[in-house]
Amino acid sequence: MKRYVLNDLKKDTKKHFGCDVPVEKRLTNMLFAGGCLVCIVCVIGAAIVGMPIEAILICLSLAVYIGLMFYISNKVENPELFNQLALIIINFVFFPAIFLTTGGVYGGIVSYFIFGIIFSFLLFKGFICFLVVVAELVFYSALIYASYEWPQIVLDINSRSYTYFLSSTTVVIVALATGLLVRLLTTQYRREKRKIDKAVKELEELSTKDPLTGVYNRRYMLDFLQTNINRAYNYGAQLSVVMFDIDKFKSLNDDFGHLVGDEILLNLCDLVGTQIRTSDMLSRYGGEEFVAVFPNTSAEVAYRRAEEIRKIVEETSLSDSVNRPITISGGVAEYVKGMSVEEIIGAADKNLYVAKNTGRNKICIGNDETWE
To answer: Fewer Cβ atoms within 10 A, N terminus or C terminus of the chain?
Structure first.
């Protein structure tokens, strides 16, 4: 039984005060719940030290009012307007009443006015916020001035225990309210930062990844290849490119449908991704063509890797719907100093063309004179 009660309490707490709750709603929930708790503590403390019955009754009324407002605000259809109205009543009715029944400025309740203004500034927006805050400033200033000019309107408190109680209560409330604001702002900042980071990551993936296969797209590959060409040019590093193509892919689409063709493309990329290094890069060049960039790799090594990939693809079923072997062909090209991006891709494409026209299911490496 105790376990279920704790679980329900955790769910309710997360529902009203969790990070997924909009910041305005979470702020008012914290304000109501915290204010109700503080008022209950004040009532108990005031009764213990023998505070005037007027002050005790006002604090008790405020506790009941705030608790009721917290309950209703989570039931109404337009909680924002309701919370704003509730805050106005608290700031213009209850806080002044507590101020007048606890010794005025000598009771330390002036700090309530400050936090009332701060919460008004957070809950209201635009010109309405300006009007409410100015009205509160004028009203509180007039109330403090009146307590000096006509001290008879203030319920005098001369007991030292009263003063100690009010001072300590004020310090605790200030600390709690400050902690509440800091906690709220920091959690909101972290939440917004996570949302921004997630959005940035999604935008980066959309701009650099192929939506179907999840590998890098052509534009990103060209930038990646250019970066490695610059590195190879400046430092003499090796660089190789392999262009792959699925053999007779058009007939696969015609015979089994485009959904099966998409499945083949996706499974092929997943398979090839397990066979290359983290420093290598696989991209979809267009249609059923893919380009793999191998930094710090000679043409011979790139050829061996491409041949291993070709064999694995030949031995693997890329779709249960296809009842015939699925193979790939590839062309390898190595960077020669002075080559551009277009030239090295063109060399790999030329070798791929030879592989496709000399039987398919093979990897070709060579130049104009010799072919392997």
So the answer is: N
